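Notebook p. 47: complex prediction with aspartic acid.
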Amino acid sequence: MIIVASTNGKVGIWAAMEVLRGGGTAIDAVEAGIRLVESNPEDTTVGLGGIPNLLGEVELDASIMDGRTLAAGAVAALRGYEHPISIARKVMEELPHVLLAGPGAERFAAEMGFERRELLTEKARQTWEEQLRKAMPETVLANLEGEPALRQWVQRVRESRRGGGTVNFLAQDADGNICAGVSTSGQGWKYPGRVGDSPLIGAGNYADNRYGAAACTGLGEMAILTGTAHSVVLYLKMGLSLEEAGRQAMEDFHALADLYQGALSIVALDKDGHHAAFSNREGTTYVYMTGEMDEPEELPRVSAA
Ligand code: ASP
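Predicted complex, C-alpha cells below:
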C-alpha cells in the first residue's frame, strides 16, 4: 500500500492512507486525500481559495483514473463546486463519457446532489485584484466583463504571476490496484474557459495497473502538447526504469516552442510500488507514505532540465 502526492497533498495523505488501511480501494484513497486539499483555503491552487481566472471567477479542473479498468472521469472549467474530484469520479461511474466541461459539468454536479458553494475567498480576490492592477490600467479593470480584447491581458498578467500548484495523488491499494487523481484551479488569471492538463487523461493524469501511473503539476500546456502522463506510463511499458521513464518524458519539453517553456513537475509510481518525482525546476519535493509508515516522508524530485 502506498500513496504518492505532490507536496501540497500532505494535508490529505494521512486520510488517504487511513482509507487503504481500512481496506478501501485506491480510488477511495485518492478521492479522500484530494478532497482535503480542495477544502484547504490556504492552498491557492486547488478548490476553495483557488486563484481565479481573468474575470475573477474560480474555474476548476480535475480527473481521476482507475488503473484496473482504465476507466476515467473528469471535469473542466467547473464553477461553484468545492469537490471537482468527487464530481469527476461520478462522471466515471455514472456516465459513458470521460470529460464534462462548464455548464454541462455543473448541471451534472447538481443532478448528483453536490451543493453549490462560493469558492472565491477574500484572500484570493485580493491577490487577483493586486495582480491585475499591476498589469492593466484602472479603466480596464473597472470594466473587465465588457473588455473587447480580454485576450491581450492574459500574457501581460501571466508575466508577473506567481508559481503554479495543483494537487496530484497516486495510490496503490492492498490488492495492487492503482489510481491517479488530479485537482486544480488551473493557471491563475487564465482566459475564461481555458482548460489545462489536469482533466485531460494522458496529459496531466494516467494510470494503468499493468505498468504504473503518473500525474503532473505546472504549465499544463506543456503536458497537453507532449502527452506527459501517458508518456511516462508508455515508457514503463517499453521496459524503462521509473527514473528513465520520467527523464524521457521530460526530454520531450525541449522540442516545445518558447511560448510553452515553463515549470513542469511529475509524480510517478510503477506497478511494483516504486515511486519517483521529476521537475525541471531545482529544489522541488514530493511526499509519499506506505502502509508501514506513521508519517509521510518528503523527498526531493529528480531534477531533469
Ligand atoms: N497544471 C495546471 C494547469 O495548467 C496548473 C498548475 O499546476 O500550476 O492548469
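Notes: Residues 2-303 form a domain with the Glutamine Phosphoribosylpyrophosphate, subunit 1, domain 1 fold (CATH 3.60.20.30). The mean pLDDT is 95.
Next step: compare against the earlier run before touching the bench.
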